[in-house]
């Protein structure tokens, strides 16, 4: 019988970088140009099947990026196993914000947390402000890289017992 694992994943990053869109692409393979902003946090699940047929079920917490909800974030990352910190490749300020989130996670989250930095909106290449530098990149709009980033996280998690 294949093993089944479950992990809690939190999405963090500036408002409008595409966190909710990434989740929608990953979970439902859909994209919506006119999504309403997430208020507070939303919860969804999706499962990744690895090469050995073991499955990793992600409990995904999509947090609102607005400053007024920032104080809620620790509630979501405190017992998270993994975090996807998202920026928008067309907004260099959003990468600075992402780096701030990573520093906060390193200070405050569980030391075993797996952190992935994700540059989203690669379909807007003509407006790129952040060079690739080998980081993970996605487009929630086209789906490029989306499955890969979650699979990469699944492979970094402690799949034991
Ligand atoms: P969030 O606030 O970080 O959750 O961002 P949203 O998912 O609400 O997305 C903010 C805006 O960016 C919306 O208008 C989305 O349609 C758009 N968006 C999200 N991902 C992409 C992408 O990969 N490419 C493009 N072109 N637009 C995107």
TrEMBL record:
The keyword Plastid does not apply. One of its GO terms (molecular function) is GTP binding. Keywords: Nucleotide-binding. This is Ras-domain-containing protein. The lineage of its organism: Eukaryota, Fungi, Dikarya, Basidiomycota, Agaricomycotina. The chain holds residues 1 to 161 of 195 of the full protein.
């Amino acid at each position: 019988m294949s093993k089944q694992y479950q992990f809690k994943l939190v999405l963090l990053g500036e408002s409008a970088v595409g966190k909710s869109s990434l989740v929608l692409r990953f979970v439902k393979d859909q994209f919506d140009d006119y999504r309403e902003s997430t208020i507070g946090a939303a919860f969804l699940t999706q499962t990744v099947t690895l090469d050995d047929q073991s499955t990793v079920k992600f409990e995904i917490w999509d947090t609102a990026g607005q400053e007024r909800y920032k104080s809620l974030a620790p509630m979501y990352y405190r017992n998270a196993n993994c975090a996807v910190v998202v920026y928008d490749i067309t907004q260099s300020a959003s990468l600075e914000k992402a780096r701030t989130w990573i520093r906060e996670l390193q200070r405050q989250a569980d030391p075993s947390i797996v952190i992935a930095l994700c540059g989203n909106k690669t379909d807007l290449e003509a407006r790129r402000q952040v060079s690739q530098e080998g980081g993970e990149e996605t487009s929630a709009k086209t789906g490029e890289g989306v499955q890969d980033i979650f699979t990469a996280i699944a492979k970094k998690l402690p799949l034991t017992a």
